[in-house]
Amino acid sequence: MTRAPSKNLPLPPLNAVRAFEAAARRSSFKEAAVELGVTHGAISRQVRLLEDWLGRPTLFRRLSHGVMLTAEGAALFAEIGPALEQIAAAAVRHGQPAKTSATMLRVNALATFSLRWLMPKLTLLREAHPEIDLRLTTGNEPIDALAGDYDLVIRGGPDTFHGFEAYHLLPERRLPVCSPELTATLPLDCVEDLERHTLIDVGSMPRLWRDWLVMADHGTLVPASTLTLDHFYLAIQAAINGMGVAMGPATLIEDDLRLERLIAPFPTLSLPARSYFAYVPVTSPVRTASLSVCRWIAAFDKGSSVASSPDQLPPASPQPRH
Protein backbone atom coordinates (compact mmCIF):
# COMPACT_ATOMS: atom_id res chain seq x y z
CA MET A 1 0.00 0.00 0.00
CA THR A 2 1.42 3.38 -1.01
CA ARG A 3 1.58 5.93 1.77
CA ALA A 4 0.58 9.47 0.80
CA PRO A 5 2.88 12.23 2.03
CA SER A 6 1.55 14.06 5.05
CA LYS A 7 2.61 17.42 3.67
CA ASN A 8 4.46 19.00 0.76
CA LEU A 9 8.01 19.32 2.12
CA PRO A 10 10.40 21.68 0.31
CA LEU A 11 13.41 19.93 -1.21
CA PRO A 12 16.87 21.45 -1.69
CA PRO A 13 18.36 21.45 -5.24
CA LEU A 14 19.16 17.79 -5.85
CA ASN A 15 22.28 18.47 -7.96
CA ALA A 16 23.62 20.54 -5.08
CA VAL A 17 22.88 17.69 -2.66
CA ARG A 18 24.74 15.22 -4.88
CA ALA A 19 27.73 17.57 -5.16
CA PHE A 20 27.79 18.09 -1.38
CA GLU A 21 27.56 14.35 -0.66
CA ALA A 22 30.35 13.43 -3.09
CA ALA A 23 32.66 16.19 -1.78
CA ALA A 24 31.93 15.22 1.83
CA ARG A 25 32.53 11.53 1.19
CA ARG A 26 35.83 12.16 -0.64
CA SER A 27 36.99 15.20 1.37
CA SER A 28 37.86 16.79 -1.98
CA PHE A 29 36.06 19.04 -4.45
CA LYS A 30 38.44 17.85 -7.18
CA GLU A 31 37.71 14.15 -6.65
CA ALA A 32 33.99 14.86 -6.39
CA ALA A 33 34.20 16.66 -9.74
CA VAL A 34 35.86 13.64 -11.35
CA GLU A 35 33.23 11.29 -9.91
CA LEU A 36 30.30 13.39 -11.15
CA GLY A 37 31.88 14.35 -14.48
CA VAL A 38 31.89 18.10 -13.86
CA THR A 39 34.50 20.75 -13.13
CA HIS A 40 36.01 21.67 -9.77
CA GLY A 41 34.29 25.05 -10.07
CA ALA A 42 30.89 23.42 -10.64
CA ILE A 43 31.20 21.51 -7.35
CA SER A 44 32.11 24.72 -5.54
CA ARG A 45 29.11 26.54 -7.03
CA GLN A 46 26.70 23.73 -6.12
CA VAL A 47 27.96 23.69 -2.54
CA ARG A 48 27.45 27.47 -2.30
CA LEU A 49 23.94 27.01 -3.72
CA LEU A 50 23.13 24.46 -1.02
CA GLU A 51 24.59 26.73 1.67
CA ASP A 52 22.39 29.58 0.40
CA TRP A 53 19.29 27.35 0.36
CA LEU A 54 20.00 26.28 3.95
CA GLY A 55 20.44 29.87 5.10
CA ARG A 56 24.19 30.22 4.54
CA PRO A 57 25.77 27.83 7.05
CA THR A 58 29.40 26.98 6.19
CA LEU A 59 29.46 23.30 5.27
CA PHE A 60 33.18 22.89 4.50
CA ARG A 61 36.46 24.24 5.77
CA ARG A 62 38.99 24.63 2.92
CA LEU A 63 42.40 23.04 3.57
CA SER A 64 45.59 23.05 1.50
CA HIS A 65 45.12 19.37 0.61
CA GLY A 66 41.32 19.26 0.30
CA VAL A 67 38.25 20.11 2.36
CA MET A 68 36.90 19.12 5.78
CA LEU A 69 33.31 19.16 6.97
CA THR A 70 32.33 21.72 9.57
CA ALA A 71 30.07 20.66 12.44
CA GLU A 72 27.02 21.78 10.42
CA GLY A 73 28.30 19.97 7.33
CA ALA A 74 28.98 16.75 9.26
CA ALA A 75 25.48 16.79 10.76
CA LEU A 76 23.94 17.27 7.30
CA PHE A 77 26.12 14.57 5.73
CA ALA A 78 25.14 12.10 8.47
CA GLU A 79 21.53 12.31 7.28
CA ILE A 80 21.93 12.99 3.55
CA GLY A 81 24.44 10.17 2.91
CA PRO A 82 22.12 7.35 4.08
CA ALA A 83 19.15 9.03 2.34
CA LEU A 84 20.91 8.99 -1.04
CA GLU A 85 22.01 5.38 -0.48
CA GLN A 86 18.37 4.49 0.21
CA ILE A 87 17.25 6.19 -3.01
CA ALA A 88 19.94 4.33 -5.00
CA ALA A 89 18.94 1.01 -3.43
CA ALA A 90 15.28 1.64 -4.28
CA ALA A 91 16.21 2.41 -7.89
CA VAL A 92 18.13 -0.89 -8.13
CA ARG A 93 15.19 -2.84 -6.66
CA HIS A 94 12.58 -1.28 -8.93
CA GLY A 95 14.46 -0.66 -12.15
CA GLN A 96 17.56 -1.35 -14.20
CA PRO A 97 20.71 0.44 -12.93
CA ALA A 98 22.43 2.68 -15.43
CA LYS A 99 25.46 1.29 -17.21
CA THR A 100 28.83 2.34 -15.85
CA SER A 101 29.85 5.49 -17.67
CA ALA A 102 33.21 5.93 -19.37
CA THR A 103 36.09 7.47 -17.43
CA MET A 104 36.27 11.17 -18.21
CA LEU A 105 39.84 12.25 -18.99
CA ARG A 106 40.57 15.97 -19.14
CA VAL A 107 43.48 16.59 -21.53
CA ASN A 108 45.22 19.88 -22.28
CA ALA A 109 47.61 19.68 -25.24
CA LEU A 110 49.66 22.04 -27.36
CA ALA A 111 47.53 23.61 -30.11
CA THR A 112 49.66 22.45 -33.05
CA PHE A 113 50.03 18.95 -31.59
CA SER A 114 46.25 18.76 -31.17
CA LEU A 115 45.39 20.03 -34.66
CA ARG A 116 48.07 18.29 -36.71
CA TRP A 117 48.61 15.02 -34.79
CA LEU A 118 45.94 14.17 -32.21
CA MET A 119 42.72 15.28 -33.94
CA PRO A 120 43.32 13.21 -37.12
CA LYS A 121 43.87 10.14 -34.90
CA LEU A 122 41.07 10.77 -32.40
CA THR A 123 38.76 8.18 -33.96
CA LEU A 124 41.52 5.57 -33.63
CA LEU A 125 42.00 6.50 -29.97
CA ARG A 126 38.28 6.18 -29.27
CA GLU A 127 38.22 2.76 -30.97
CA ALA A 128 41.25 1.60 -28.97
CA HIS A 129 39.90 2.94 -25.65
CA PRO A 130 36.09 3.17 -25.70
CA GLU A 131 36.20 3.19 -21.89
CA ILE A 132 37.77 6.68 -21.93
CA ASP A 133 35.74 9.85 -22.51
CA LEU A 134 38.46 12.27 -23.62
CA ARG A 135 37.77 16.00 -23.11
CA LEU A 136 40.39 17.93 -25.11
CA THR A 137 41.35 21.57 -24.71
CA THR A 138 44.38 23.30 -26.20
CA GLY A 139 46.93 25.64 -24.70
CA ASN A 140 50.56 26.66 -24.89
CA GLU A 141 51.01 28.14 -21.42
CA PRO A 142 53.31 26.45 -18.88
CA ILE A 143 51.73 23.79 -16.69
CA ASP A 144 52.08 25.87 -13.53
CA ALA A 145 50.15 28.70 -15.24
CA LEU A 146 47.19 26.54 -16.35
CA ALA A 147 43.77 27.68 -15.19
CA GLY A 148 41.84 24.54 -14.27
CA ASP A 149 42.55 20.94 -13.36
CA TYR A 150 43.67 18.41 -15.97
CA ASP A 151 44.38 14.68 -15.79
CA LEU A 152 46.93 14.78 -18.63
CA VAL A 153 48.91 17.70 -20.04
CA ILE A 154 50.97 17.44 -23.24
CA ARG A 155 53.89 19.85 -23.58
CA GLY A 156 57.52 19.86 -24.64
CA GLY A 157 60.09 18.27 -22.40
CA PRO A 158 61.57 16.86 -20.41
CA ASP A 159 60.69 19.31 -17.63
CA THR A 160 60.02 18.87 -13.94
CA PHE A 161 56.83 20.23 -12.38
CA HIS A 162 55.90 19.86 -8.73
CA GLY A 163 53.20 17.22 -8.31
CA PHE A 164 53.54 15.74 -11.82
CA GLU A 165 55.20 12.71 -13.36
CA ALA A 166 56.57 13.14 -16.88
CA TYR A 167 56.37 10.48 -19.62
CA HIS A 168 58.09 10.62 -23.01
CA LEU A 169 55.62 10.38 -25.89
CA LEU A 170 57.20 11.27 -29.23
CA PRO A 171 60.51 12.75 -30.46
CA GLU A 172 60.63 15.86 -32.64
CA ARG A 173 62.93 17.58 -35.13
CA ARG A 174 62.36 20.50 -37.50
CA LEU A 175 63.17 20.82 -41.19
CA PRO A 176 62.14 22.92 -44.21
CA VAL A 177 58.90 21.86 -45.94
CA CYS A 178 56.79 23.23 -48.78
CA SER A 179 54.12 22.19 -51.26
CA PRO A 180 55.11 20.11 -54.31
CA GLU A 181 53.46 22.74 -56.51
CA LEU A 182 55.85 25.41 -55.21
CA THR A 183 58.97 23.51 -56.25
CA ALA A 184 57.44 22.83 -59.67
CA THR A 185 57.67 26.56 -60.39
CA LEU A 186 60.66 27.46 -58.16
CA PRO A 187 62.97 24.44 -57.78
CA LEU A 188 64.68 23.73 -54.46
CA ASP A 189 67.61 21.57 -55.51
CA CYS A 190 70.09 23.08 -53.04
CA VAL A 191 70.04 25.35 -49.99
CA GLU A 192 71.11 28.36 -52.11
CA ASP A 193 67.80 28.13 -53.97
CA LEU A 194 66.04 29.42 -50.82
CA GLU A 195 67.21 32.90 -51.92
CA ARG A 196 64.35 32.86 -54.45
CA HIS A 197 61.69 31.79 -51.94
CA THR A 198 59.54 33.21 -49.16
CA LEU A 199 60.56 31.82 -45.77
CA ILE A 200 57.64 31.39 -43.35
CA ASP A 201 58.56 32.29 -39.77
CA VAL A 202 56.77 31.45 -36.50
CA GLY A 203 56.50 34.57 -34.37
CA SER A 204 57.25 32.77 -31.10
CA MET A 205 60.45 31.24 -32.57
CA PRO A 206 62.10 34.07 -34.55
CA ARG A 207 65.53 32.35 -34.70
CA LEU A 208 64.28 29.06 -36.10
CA TRP A 209 65.18 29.70 -39.75
CA ARG A 210 68.43 31.46 -38.82
CA ASP A 211 69.53 28.50 -36.67
CA TRP A 212 68.73 26.06 -39.48
CA LEU A 213 70.62 28.12 -42.07
CA VAL A 214 73.68 28.32 -39.77
CA MET A 215 73.49 24.55 -39.26
CA ALA A 216 73.32 24.14 -43.06
CA ASP A 217 76.42 26.41 -43.49
CA HIS A 218 74.39 29.20 -45.12
CA GLY A 219 74.03 31.62 -42.22
CA THR A 220 74.29 34.70 -44.48
CA LEU A 221 71.55 33.64 -46.93
CA VAL A 222 68.89 36.29 -47.57
CA PRO A 223 65.50 35.02 -48.84
CA ALA A 224 63.34 36.78 -51.43
CA SER A 225 60.86 37.63 -48.65
CA THR A 226 59.56 36.46 -45.29
CA LEU A 227 56.10 35.81 -43.83
CA THR A 228 55.63 35.73 -40.05
CA LEU A 229 52.67 33.91 -38.45
CA ASP A 230 51.85 33.38 -34.76
CA HIS A 231 51.60 29.57 -34.58
CA PHE A 232 53.18 26.50 -36.10
CA TYR A 233 49.82 25.24 -37.37
CA LEU A 234 49.36 28.48 -39.36
CA ALA A 235 52.86 28.22 -40.79
CA ILE A 236 52.24 24.59 -41.81
CA GLN A 237 48.95 25.48 -43.48
CA ALA A 238 50.60 28.40 -45.31
CA ALA A 239 53.24 25.99 -46.65
CA ILE A 240 50.53 23.54 -47.78
CA ASN A 241 48.84 26.44 -49.57
CA GLY A 242 52.04 27.18 -51.50
CA MET A 243 52.78 30.50 -49.78
CA GLY A 244 56.42 29.68 -49.04
CA VAL A 245 58.79 27.35 -47.21
CA ALA A 246 58.17 26.67 -43.52
CA MET A 247 60.18 25.01 -40.77
CA GLY A 248 57.97 22.00 -40.11
CA PRO A 249 57.85 19.81 -36.98
CA ALA A 250 58.57 16.43 -38.58
CA THR A 251 56.48 14.30 -36.20
CA LEU A 252 53.38 16.46 -36.65
CA ILE A 253 53.54 16.53 -40.45
CA GLU A 254 54.19 12.83 -41.09
CA ASP A 255 50.74 12.43 -42.68
CA ASP A 256 51.22 15.55 -44.82
CA LEU A 257 54.54 14.18 -46.11
CA ARG A 258 53.12 10.70 -46.70
CA LEU A 259 50.13 12.11 -48.63
CA GLU A 260 52.45 14.54 -50.49
CA ARG A 261 50.62 17.61 -49.31
CA LEU A 262 54.12 18.67 -48.26
CA ILE A 263 57.61 17.67 -49.33
CA ALA A 264 60.93 18.01 -47.46
CA PRO A 265 63.52 19.19 -50.00
CA PHE A 266 66.41 18.68 -47.54
CA PRO A 267 65.39 15.64 -45.45
CA THR A 268 68.86 15.06 -44.00
CA LEU A 269 69.19 18.62 -42.65
CA SER A 270 67.06 18.99 -39.53
CA LEU A 271 67.25 20.83 -36.22
CA PRO A 272 66.82 18.92 -32.96
CA ALA A 273 63.74 19.96 -30.98
CA ARG A 274 62.15 19.26 -27.61
CA SER A 275 60.23 16.00 -27.51
CA TYR A 276 56.53 15.74 -26.66
CA PHE A 277 55.92 14.73 -23.06
CA ALA A 278 52.86 13.84 -21.03
CA TYR A 279 52.61 15.29 -17.52
CA VAL A 280 50.30 13.37 -15.18
CA PRO A 281 49.37 14.56 -11.66
CA VAL A 282 50.77 12.08 -9.15
CA THR A 283 47.49 12.17 -7.17
CA SER A 284 45.21 11.78 -10.21
CA PRO A 285 42.24 9.47 -9.51
CA VAL A 286 42.22 8.48 -13.22
CA ARG A 287 45.95 7.80 -13.55
CA THR A 288 45.36 4.40 -15.22
CA ALA A 289 43.35 6.03 -18.02
CA SER A 290 45.99 8.75 -18.42
CA LEU A 291 48.76 6.18 -18.78
CA SER A 292 46.68 4.17 -21.26
CA VAL A 293 46.52 7.25 -23.49
CA CYS A 294 50.26 7.83 -22.99
CA ARG A 295 51.04 4.30 -24.12
CA TRP A 296 48.73 4.64 -27.12
CA ILE A 297 50.45 7.85 -28.28
CA ALA A 298 53.97 6.54 -27.60
CA ALA A 299 53.25 3.47 -29.77
CA PHE A 300 53.35 5.76 -32.84
CA ASP A 301 57.07 6.37 -32.23
CA LYS A 302 58.54 3.91 -34.71
CA GLY A 303 61.75 3.70 -32.71
CA SER A 304 60.18 3.06 -29.32
CA SER A 305 59.49 -0.09 -27.36
CA VAL A 306 56.23 0.40 -25.49
CA ALA A 307 55.48 -1.45 -22.27
CA SER A 308 52.53 -3.86 -22.25
CA SER A 309 51.10 -2.53 -19.00
CA PRO A 310 50.20 1.11 -18.28
CA ASP A 311 52.01 1.00 -14.97
CA GLN A 312 55.20 -0.16 -16.73
CA LEU A 313 55.40 3.00 -18.86
CA PRO A 314 58.66 4.51 -17.59
CA PRO A 315 58.80 8.11 -16.43
CA ALA A 316 61.30 10.41 -18.08
CA SER A 317 64.71 10.11 -16.44
CA PRO A 318 65.38 11.83 -14.16
CA GLN A 319 61.86 12.77 -13.07
CA PRO A 320 61.51 12.58 -9.26
CA ARG A 321 58.09 12.49 -7.67
CA HIS A 322 57.44 15.59 -5.55
From TrEMBL:
HTH lysR-type domain segment(s): 12-70
Keywords annotated in UniProt: DNA-binding, Transcription, Transcription regulation
DNA-binding found in the keyword field: yes
GO BP annotation list: DNA-templated transcription
One Pfam assignment: LysR_substrate
Entry keyword Transcription: yes
Stored SUPFAM superfamilies: Periplasmic binding protein-like II, Winged helix' DNA-binding domain
GO molecular function: DNA-binding transcription factor activity; sequence-specific DNA binding
Domain of life: Bacteria
Family: Belongs to the LysR transcriptional regulatory family.
Protein name per its UniProtKB record: LysR family transcriptional regulator
Organism: Lichenibacterium minor
